[in-house]
Design a protein that fits this description.
Chain lengths: 652, 120
Amino acid sequence: MFDEEGYRKLFVEESRENHENIVNHLLALENGEDQQTAIDEIFRSAHTLKGMSASMGFDAMEHLCHSMEDIFSLIRNGQREVTASLTDLLLTCTDAIEGMLDTIEAGGTPSDEQSGSLVQELRAFTEEEAPDEPKAPHDAAPPEPAGEADGHPIYTLTVAVDPSSTMKDIRAMLLLQNLQEIGTILSTNPSQELLEDGKFDGPFEILIESEAGEDALRTVASGTEISLLDLSSSQAPQAVSPVVNEDAQTPEPDLELQIAVPSPQAQRVTKSEKSREIKNIRVDIQRLDRMMNLVEDLVINRGRLELIAKKHGIKEFDEALSMVGRSVSDLQNLMMGIRMMPLERIFNRLPRVVRDVANHDGKEVELTIEGGETELDRSMMDGLSDPLLHIIRNAVNHGIETPEIRAASGKPPKGLLRLTARRDKDNVIIEIEDDGAGIDPEKLRKKAVSKGLMTPEAAASATKDDLVSLLFEPGFSTAETITDISGRGVGLDVVKKTIASLKGTIKVETEVGRGTKFELVLPPTMAIIDVMMVHINGMRCAIPVSNVVEVAQTKADAIHRIGNSEAILLRDQTLPLHRLEDMFGRAEKSDTLVVLQNNGRRCCITVDTVDGQQEVVVKPLSRIAGNCRGISGITIPGDGDVVPVLDVNTMV
Amino acid sequence: MGRILIVDDTMFMRTLLKNILFSGGHDIVGEAADGAEALAKYRELKPDLVTMDVVMPNVNGIEALKAIKAANPAAKVIMCTAVGQEQMVKLAVKSGARGYIVKPFQAPKVLEEVKNVLSA
């Protein structure tokens, strides 16, 4: 029906939220948490997905969601139990939905193949036992003569409901209700009960007593999908069935009561979530990027204006400018804040992964997640997702032992996996810690030699830290056999590379028999960082402050040549010295040293002067400039100058 | 043309409906994402008409409808529904809903129902 880009994006985004809601509540059901809330939530999300996909004309997805909704409708009524095999089937359905959403996001339309036989399988569940259908309504009461007409005019209306109407019974109900407002319905043919149950074909008759007049009756009786075929005034009441008293209706089945009274706990949770949602608006991340670029342009041009003001010495102009400057800074900070998102966004996917891997491997794992509210720049979220998945999978796959092995070593059979996130002053720290087998350094030592990564001598003298850091080398994996879950040919080396591309670092601590802990340290945002401004051979250059250890003065005699390169002895530590001549040319006098570090490794560079520290926006190099070794991007400080930002990673 | 409050828990559906109603010349005076909010917005905005989703978290559409009707018995509320929800919609009609529209929405049908309910 609609295929506009805007709808599609909104559709995908909200569908993913509902998909996630289903998965998480399926897992909650499995873990024996609050059953009623979980069932209600799954029903609601399946229903919402059905409605949305129908609106977009994605039939395959609609059918699948519809079948899921049907099952949960039965479960809610207590007519089906949630069994392990049903949970598995439903999770497979959510996978299919996820695949469909991927297709839709890529601009396609999901096909029936994507749901395969799932709809049939779900149907088999709904049809498997004959459920106790609520009894059909009682037979229509025998016709009784209508009451006194009290002298008001009486009319007979002959009315038809449009055959294409989706709910003709409700149309009939609405009509009767509207008529009741301007008169008294004496009887209908067929009976009102049959009409309300939709048990009628073709036109029906209504006998009504009303003072409103023919015109009013005509208006009311010609509503949506309703046409008035005939209106005649009749004096004598006809023998048709009486109106059923509204108040005497049998109570509605439990279905409505259950939804109408959500548990207080669920109410609290969803209330706060929902009230937050409506205060927010959704903005395409690309628009935010464009806004950010505009803010950066403002920053640059403010700098140019400041120079002009200084050059001409216009004091008034200067003052106005400083006001503008403050607004621009505030705007910039605001923009950065807007781009931040809670880590929950990616953490929410993980319980499912842990469940699947644990089930596959016959392990028992309890995953706890803390600090999901910690915020990170949106642009980093996507990059972080895969490494995190990989580490989590590894932890279950290789870290945590089977219940038997754990019991044999005196551990509780259920393994613990802790995922925590927190913010310290400059960084976001994410830890993934398991209480599994740990990594045996002796195994690493053997492997390092057999893989040719170390000579036997080097391996023999290697420290535990050296050996553990081998994990991040390409092609190095400690698992004896490659499993179909963790071992996908992607190793921790890729994880490390990805984290590094986010300007983050990764560290691992492990203790045999006690477990393994991975620590990711990430800057909360990539776009704005603190840099140290320096001059190298008369040219300006920025160094991320997070990479700077210290600044020192050198004496020529502290510099030693070692082969082709230079090194410097600084407080009993030998550090490689780089002059960056290939980048900036040879400097006449550069006697100031800056000690840099990345990932625990250090080196020195020489600079002419250190100009100070500044917060800047780092822009990536354009595609035209391509990848430039040693430079991670450029920045444009207030004066409009274009300054390269050193990529310390490539130097140490 | 009417001043309309749209109630649905997904922004997708709200947007869809908003565009349909807008194309019919109506004013969308507000949106709400659940029943509790619907009642608050109804009191605040006093719209001519409310489109009310049935299945929503927290306070569902039927409860919200009842609350709105209690606040103003003359309130005009149209239920947004889907195939399979006949029982709920019947309950809604008994509780005072004036009309219903069925998902997936068809613009002409939606506008016709809104027009009819507004002019009633």
